[in-house]
Amino acid sequence: MITVKIELECCEGCGDCVEQCPMGVFQMVDGKSQAVNEEKCIECCLCETVCPQLAITITK
Amino acid sequence: MPTVYDPIKVGTFWLKNRFVVAPTVKNHALEDGFLNQRVLDNYEVEADGPGLVICGMSFTEPAGQCFMRQMGAHHDKCMGGLQNLAQVIHRQGAKAALQISHGGTLGTEGLTGQPVRGVSEKPFLPGQRPVPLTTGELEGVIENYAKAAGRIKAAGFDAVELHACHGSLLLQFMSPFYNVGRWDKYADRTVLFAETVQAMRDAVGPDFAFGVRFSTHEFGMEDLGFPGQTIEETCDLFIPIAEKIGVDWIHASVGRIGLTPDHSFPPVYAPHGVNVKYAEACKKVAHVPVIAVGRLMDPKLIEKIIEDEQADMVALCRPIIADQRFVKKMIEGRHDDIRKCIGCNYCLHCLFVQYDAECTMNPSYGRERVYEVTPAKKNKKVMVVGGGVSGLQVALTASQRGHEVTLYEKSDKLGGQINLAAAFPRLYTRDLKNLPDWLAREVEQTTVKVVLNTEVTPELVEKEKPDAIVVATGAKEKVIELPKGAENVVYLWDYLRGTAKIGNKVVILGGNEGAEAALSLAREGKEVTLVEEGGNIALPPYIFLFSCRREPLFRWMKEEKVTILTEHKVKAATGDTLTLADKWGVKKTVAYDTIVVAVDREPVNELYNAIATRGREVYLLGDAKEPRNMKEDNQEAFWLGRHI
After folding, report:
1. Fewer beta carbons within 10 Å, N or C terminal of chain B?
2. Shortest CA distance to B282 belongs to which of B255, B309, B307?
3. How far is residue B512's CA from residue B330's CA, in Å, rounded to a whole number?
């Protein structure tokens, strides 16, 4: 099972993960990112690299 | 809601699913464009599964050839080979199409034996002086397109595709960047396109399927500051023209070779499916099926594109090169068995150095019959030292042939140097892990015994008494001596492990291995200076010259304001300044608070040196022989695995 973990304290709400994720996993909720479609994650890990705060971790 | 496994009607025929093998130049044919058994064997494997196979770019006339062993449709003598090709694809259950093109300024005089022809005198390669094609000659060019289309129909193919993308002659006429200075009707950028489509449609009749591949967006303005074909133009102008004359599909690619190639062939740094939005834009205006293409190697992403109706069909090029059974595995639900393309673009580099396309991931590409894995004559006890790419590949292949293999890895995980290469914090190189991950998964399903956390010593070798030993112990960073006074020195691999303390003013020593790090650090907000003794940066052994990886790296380094100093050596240091000198001895001081050393790697081969002289069958493999890249290591490991 793939988990998408977002360190909410670090999330600055830039929205890059929302924009870049090819599967539409993320959505902005109350100014922070949330993995609303976690089950769609394909582990490409693009979110890990685009996040300016390195707040996202993908684990299997 | 459509799925990628559903049939679709294209022209007058039905495809059994939405998978398309994208047109790929493989440089596997003969130098004069005729086909051989090698081409047929290659397509035979790839045609098992997809609904449509579009065979790669074939030249319509000798002056239009741009790759040394490109397929041709230029002469009636090609018919024999083409008939064989269509038959092989049909036997495997797919429909067959052939893509045709005139290379224009993509060709070279050395290849065609004729002066380079183009739309204008604007060169594509430095040193080219293209001779513009005259109005009368263009009528001949169009006629050759029509004749080629006729041959393809007569050879038994189900469809033909027109190559109007990536820099071939048609795109040269359609692009505002190239089509300058003409005085005839072809100065209008749509005319050659329209006339060619019309001539081809007339040649094949109304019942034969005929598609067009566009570079829907050239990225001229974004990347170069010059106008290029835009997605708006494609949707407002070219697609309606094509549909009015009568085409049966729109294949939405982007970019142009040489100028904006990293859009046409998105490398490892690019997001997956980065070009799907252009197919989506085309789908809004097109009345015929639209094919999406570009870095699509995730089964779930492919399924999503069709389900969300972003495109009607999905074309795969490099993912099929990496795993020729990709479509078959997806249909059978074996998504995890797929060997996913990493985007190293070695295949592309091969083409531009006029070599046969080969693949880092797939060592038997283009040699499917010749490199078949056959049982060993005598089963041996094989000890493989090192769990990186080389060790994993040789263990896998040797085991498949019947050998009893044990793989030893010093650390607690497999993958070797790739674990570090894929760990840049702010540069997307995660996909590099696809190869060791796939190999590890395959190894797990064989009888190979994997022993972690164990360093192999000569004593262990004595104890185990294997029949053959493969030493694949990899490489390590070269430790260099810096002038006294230099402080806060860390190495590249420390940065990648996450154990380095990096300040704000970083000087990276080593412009080749350090180029990617320079970008990653700059994106973290650091002030980065990249210092290189030689004349070139971003050319480590794993970045191939024509792999379209340097273009985005340079563009982004410029965006992030990385200072690049080539031909500079470190002369002296204090705790916070470095004194550099260029090749004429002119000095330059750079302020720093961290030095990152990223010079060459060197082999780790102590074990090999210790045991190689004892009369045993010992092999040295991979980076332990010479630190290079995954492509050479994987191919050599596969070769060794087949020969032990």
Report:
1. N
2. B309
3. 38
For residue A48, give the amino acid letter: E
Fold classification of B8-352 is TIM Barrel (3.20.20)
DSSP B133: P
Does the domain at residues A3-59 carry the CATH identifier 3.30.70.20? yes
The complex's ipTM works out to: 0.92
Give this prediction's pTM: 0.94
3-state secondary structure B227-272: CCCCHHHHHHHHHHHHHHHCCCEEEEECCECCCCHHHHCCCCCCCC
Q: How far is A2 from chain B (nearest CA, A)?
A: 13
**CB contact (8 A) between residue B425 and residue A54:** yes
**Mutation for B interface: A42, A53, A54, most B CBs within 10 A:** A42
Q: Which residue of A has its CA nearest to B426?
A: A49
The residue in chain A having the minimum alpha-carbon distance to the alpha carbon of residue B520 is A49
- B122 — contact with chain A (CB < 8 Å)? no
Phi-psi label, residue B453: left if phi above 0, alpha if psi -120 to 50, beta otherwise: left
Element at B278 (helix H, strand E) = helix B276-285
Tens digit of each residue's pLDDT (9 = 90 or more) over A10-43: 999 999 999 999 999 999 999 999 999 999 999 9
Facing residue for A22 by CB, picked from B271, B425, B426: B271
* Paired residues of A6 in beta bridges: A56
Is B424's Cβ below 8 Å from some Cβ in A? yes
Size of interface A-B (CB pairs under 8 A): 37
Contact between chains at A44 and B300 (C-beta distance less than 8 A): no
For B205, residues 6+ apart whose C-beta sits below 8 A from its C-beta are B153
Residue type (1 letter), B78:
C
Yes or no, beta carbons of A42 and B272 under 8 Å apart: yes
How many CB atoms neighbour CB B241 within 10 A? 16
Superfamily of domain B489-599: FAD/NAD(P)-binding domain (3.50.50.60)
Mean pLDDT of chain B, nearest integer = 95
DSSP string covering B155-178: TT-SEEEEEE-BTSHHHHHH-TTT
* B381-476+603-643: in CATH 3.40.50.720: yes
Among A44, A48, A50, the residue with its CB nearest the CB of B298 is A44
Model confidence over B36-50: pLDDT tens digits?
Answer: 999 999 999 999 999
Task: Kindly list the domain boundaries of chain B, sorted by start residue.
Answer: 8-352, 381-476+603-643, 489-599
Domain boundaries, chain A: 3-59
